[in-house]
Each structure stands twice: as structure tokens, then as C-alpha cells.
Amino acid sequence: METVKISDIKPASYNPRRITEESFSELQGSLKTLGFILPIIINKRNMTIVAGHQRTKASTAVGITEVPAYFVDGVSLEAEILFNQVHNGIENEPEEHGKCLIHLADGEFHEAVPASNFDVSTAMASFVKDNCKLITEYGDALCAIVCGNEVVFGNNYIRACQCLNIPCHVYSLDPSKRMMFDYYFKKSYGFFSYDHIERADFVQGRAQMTNNTFEHSQIYRMALPFITAENNRNLHIFDFGCGKAFSITHMKQVLGYRHSVGLEFFNHNRVGISVEKGNEMIDNLIAHVQKYGLFDYVICDSVLNSVNSQKAEDSVLGCLLLFCKLGGSIFFCGRSMKSVYEKRNFKKATKNCEYDARFLDENGLTAKMTQGQWYYQKFHSPDDIDRIVERFGFDVFTRKDDGKMWKIGAMKVKELPDEAYMEAIDFEFNMKLPNNRRYGRHNDIRRLFGYPEI
Q1: Does one domain contain both 442 and 336?
Q2: Would you state the pLDDT for residue 406?
Q3: Which helix H or strand E contains 395, and what residues bound it?
Q4: Three-state SS at 92
Q5: How many domains does one find in the chain?
């Protein structure tokens, strides 16, 4: 750990944490009362704050000019952002705090404290895993806080150190300050917001669940019994956001539903996105509607978990209704917010190489940067789904939520206002493409439905 001048470091422009004026005032009170007891984290290469933006800002407000810090070095911008997000997302503590089995001098930072000197048997497995990954990939820039014989902050971090067989960084708080610590550290000092971060529509395919076969698609497994029960191979079926079209092709070529149409705006090939393929699909969709009219069934597999804004979500749902005939059926699905919160209480961490923490804003969106591009994922609570059903007038006849994915089957019983349909068309059929291009097919769809061009 080192002491750095605030004037020598700078905030990260991407920092997703925001803070209210009330919380910022409380944070200043914490610094005045307890001091700076949790070091910030800095990227040594560019002296950018990786974690601790609000504490640093509050320090300046109360006249503190130097702060304790740990450095990470040799990390890319992408890695720096991930460190920032995961660090912000893992400051969760188990209900039962661990024990410190040795005496540490109060009011001091202690380096290289053997992890065996702690009992943190109730640490949270998913957050322990994320701590382990952070330490392994970027070095140990974390810190725990003990008060007397109790680990009051950083239980998951200490357990990670035990798993990795490395010593811990620890601050020992004066027990006389325990009451004030409990008051300040149980408060929330910020919330996630991605409003200031760019939205590049064409990268949103990264956020979708991978359904490489018809059998992998949960929403098709829900829809198929209703479709086959009609015993009519002449049904018209539309897959909005069909990905690589595995499922809709199966419906057409294997199950014999010859009026099956798929649309995918971002068809990825080995080079990039095939706009030509997207335009061909749009042409086929227009030709189908001109010849046969609207669809009996509209299916939307996982698209709602890959929207990047509320407007994008509304536009998807608007298009589902637009292309479905009155009395037709719409099946759509997304990621369940239950999966985010349940992971926090897992007794065992997931085995994949991804971080388990999710960093949700007030709308259930989380953002991640990869290969220099931000992409977003959306998670829905049961209340969110209820609001969707009410706002768009769906008559739900089947609904399931397995904790990972929610699924809805509903009948279209009313039309949206024309203004809502036109907004959906203008958004979905004119989305952003690489190199500052756009699809520019919105007027074609407007003409298809008799709406004025713009």
C-alpha cells in the first residue's frame, strides 16, 4: 500500500457508479469520523482510479489531500473496467461475520497477515470466486477490516486469500469506533448507471443466450405444443431476432411449416456482420406480409435479454405486436433477475471462467466491455414482466420462470397506437451498424403498413 496525492490521480470516465447528494454527504461524514480506512485502487500505468471514485471525491470535499492506495499494473482498459465493475459488485458480506484469531494493533493497516489467522467459514462462494479471479489476474489490491476479533468487512476477500494460500491486507479498526462503523458501512454509497456509456446496437448479439439447435431453445419448446395442437402446416410463423436461424429453419424444413420467416439484423460471419444477409431477410419479410398478411405466431427468443436501453426493449415488443395478427400468439422470453440474486447465496461457486457478479442499474441493465466495445444485458424481475404485460396489453395464457429464464406465451388482443408502432419501426429497422452506418429500412416498413415516410 502507498499514500498518493489526490492531485496526482484521475477518475475513470466510464465509472458506472453514481451517488446521490444525501449519500455523498454521509460518505463525507464517514471519512471525518472513521478516517480513510479502505484504500482505493489505481491503475499505475495511467494513474486512473479503478475503484474508490466516490471516496476520493468525498475526501476532496472534506479537505483530505492524500489517500491510501493499492496499485494494479499492466492492465488494459478492458481489464481495468472489469476490475472496477467486479470490485463494486463484490462488496457484499455474509450475514455472520468471521473471526480474527490474533490481535492486531488498532488504527493501522497491516500487510501480509497470514490468512490462516481467520475463520471465515460463512463467506459467500460466488463472491469468493470473483475475489480469487481478481487477485489471480491483477494482483492483490483488496483489503479487509477487522474490529477486535471480528471481520467486519472483507470476509469474502479473506476466504479468497485462504483458497489461494496468500496473506491478507487488513485494517484494524479501533473498537471505540465500532458503532459509527456499523452506521456508515451499512449504508449504500452509490448505484450503477450506464446512461453516460455509448450504445452500439450491432454488438448486442454478444449478450444473447447461445441456442445452437432447435432443442436448445426454451421458448420454442414452450411454443411448439400450441403450434402443433392446431394441426395446420399452413400457419404463418415469424421469428424476430432469429440469430443463426437454427430454430426457424427447423420449423420450415424439418417440421414442415413452410410459411416460416426469420429476421436477424446482425448476421455474424467470419469477417463481421453481413448487412446483405440482414437486408435479404427484411426483403423476404416484406414480401411475405405483402402476399399473406400478418403472422399467426410470432416468436422472440432471448432478444429481450440483449436490449441496451428501455427504448430498445419497447421497440422489440412493439414490433412483436406489429407483425402479429389480432388473435395471434406471441412467445417471448428473457433472463430472470432471480439468477442474479440467487448466485449471492450459492454454497458453491459456478464452475465457468466468467465472473459471477452482475452490476445492475435501476432498469435491470448491466454493461460489459469486450474487444473495445460495450454491450448490455437485461434482467427482468416478476414485477418487470407484469409491467410489460400491462403496458402492451398481452393476454397471457402461459408463463414460466425457472430462475434463469422467464417465458411468456400471450395472445394479441389489441393494437398499439400508430405512434408507438412507428417509433418501434424507426428504432428496429434503422439500428446502428459498424463504421457509423445504419440499416435505413424503416421507411420500407412504414410503407408496408401504410405509415408516412420520414
Answers
A1: yes
A2: 95
A3: strand 394-401
A4: coil
A5: 2
Asked if residue 52 belongs to a domain, the reply is yes
Q: Which one, of 6, 144, 138, 13, lies nearest residue 72 by Cα?
A: 138
Q: Which residues constitute the domain of residue 300?
A: 201-448
Is 38 a residue whose pLDDT tops 60? yes
Beta-carbon contacts of 391 under 8 Å, excluding residues fewer than 6 positions away, are none
Q: Quickly count helices (H) and strands (E) in the chain.
A: 14, 22
**Per mean pLDDT, which range of 104-113, 135-144, 398-407 is the poorest?**
135-144
**Confidence category of residue 271, pLDDT binned at 50, 70, 90:** low
pLDDT at 248: 95
Domain CATH for 438: 3.40.50.150
CA dist 254 → 193, 225, 236, 257, 260 (Å): 45, 16, 15, 8, 11
Look at residue 344 in the predicted model and tell me its pLDDT.
53
Predicted TM-score (pTM) of the model is: 0.74
AA identity, residue 280: E
> Using CA atoms, how far apart are residues 345 and 226, in angstroms rounded to an integer?
37
Tell me if 454 is assigned to some domain: no
Q: How many C-beta atoms surround the C-beta of residue 122 within 10 A?
A: 14
Instruction: Let me know: does 189 contact 23? Beta carbons within 8 Å.
Output: yes
Q: Tell me, yes or no, whether 127 and 228 share the same domain.
A: no
Which pLDDT band, with edges at 50, 70 and 90, does 215 fall under? confident
What is the rounded average pLDDT of the residues 441-454? 97
Question: How many beta carbons lie within 10 A of that of residue 273, not counting itself?
Answer: 18
Residue where a domain stops, chosen among 128, 157, 192: 192
